[in-house]
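Example 3.2
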Amino acid sequence: MTTTVFGNCAVGFAPVRPGGEGFLINLMEGVEDIPGSVLAEGIDFSWESFPQYLDVLGSRPRAMDVAAQVPHAALRCYVMGERGGDHEAVPSADEIASMGRLVVEALAAGALGFSTSRTRKHRAKDGRPTPSLSAGDPELDGIAEAVGRARAGALQCNSDFGPGELATLVRMVEISGRPLSVLLLQVDGAPQLWRETLDGIHAAQAAGLAVVGQVGVRPIGVLMGLDATVHPFAEHPAYLALAHLPLAERVARVQGEADLRRRLVAERPTEGAFAEWMARAAHRTFELGDPPDYEPDASRSIAARAAASGRDPTSSGSTSSSRTTGAGCFSTRSRTTPAATWRSGARCWLTSTPSADSGTAEPTWPRSVTPATRRSCSPTGRGTAPGASACPWKRWSASRRATRPASTASTTVASSPPATEPTSTWSPSGHCR
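Structure, written as tokens:
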């Protein structure tokens, strides 16, 4: 049992060229909300290649097992330099081949797999989308071929699942013969998209492809608080005038000034992605408590408490945020519950896909897949019949092919649904315990 896995969602710290450390820190700070100062002081970057990185991890004393995936963002920028973060840049054939060689090298050294990110919610601290977002088909196919050549490892992705996106990822499974795990998460802007994605996963599984949806044991969410990165007043003009003050002074002003509390409710922003998300999130937002309550009843949401007291949710939230020291946190949950997705057939690849050390690039077919279906689907291209009508995955993907955009850097970015929820955050100050 491996306790901790590094390199999820295409972010990580290897491979890295001398001078490229700052970009990886900037990306990690934006995606995971870990302060750059903490990363800069805590990581010595005494490696360049991924095998060297694994050697450093293996040499450190630790209390639990760790594993690491090859992060696409670091790989891309190592090979392409600054062009790796430019979404108009397209890697050359030689650069794609270099990425493939590095992936094979990393997997041979013990990397758990390869991870990529295809979501617009993943941004660097400076606001730039994650480098892997605009990777086109030739790049992804080249990396998939390398993973298959290594005969080891798994593929992992977090995606917005725009038109044609699942087909792109499943093709990586067809090329590599390795398992793929994708995150299933319900979002406000497309509340049924996860079900459609799961239908596609089921079609791929019925075709014998090792594709699975992955959900957390608890809902993914955002921690919000007055001393955290995200909170209900983060873009409020009345609050921004106080944002430079220490926490204690901000709390004192909110507690002591009735007019300020009125303005926080009456003048809150109503336009923009964050404001729109906050307006929809009150029924999924809960006071975390001390000790934290990770499974609160729906009656304890900010919206429910506000309705019970006849108050505006923002007013109720501001009262809870600012009482006592202001150090309390709110937890806003995603709308996908583990129970619902597990009942629908989502599974974690760690327990449901072929072993990474099986020694073969051929897929392990589920027992329910008949020999005829295996031949017609031919995930690794070695079958004897094309059989599109007989293959569940080909039928499913063909029904959606008409809506798939051309595979270019610009359309890949544009095809993703708009980001309707901020990146999950945590507060390094110790106030959100």
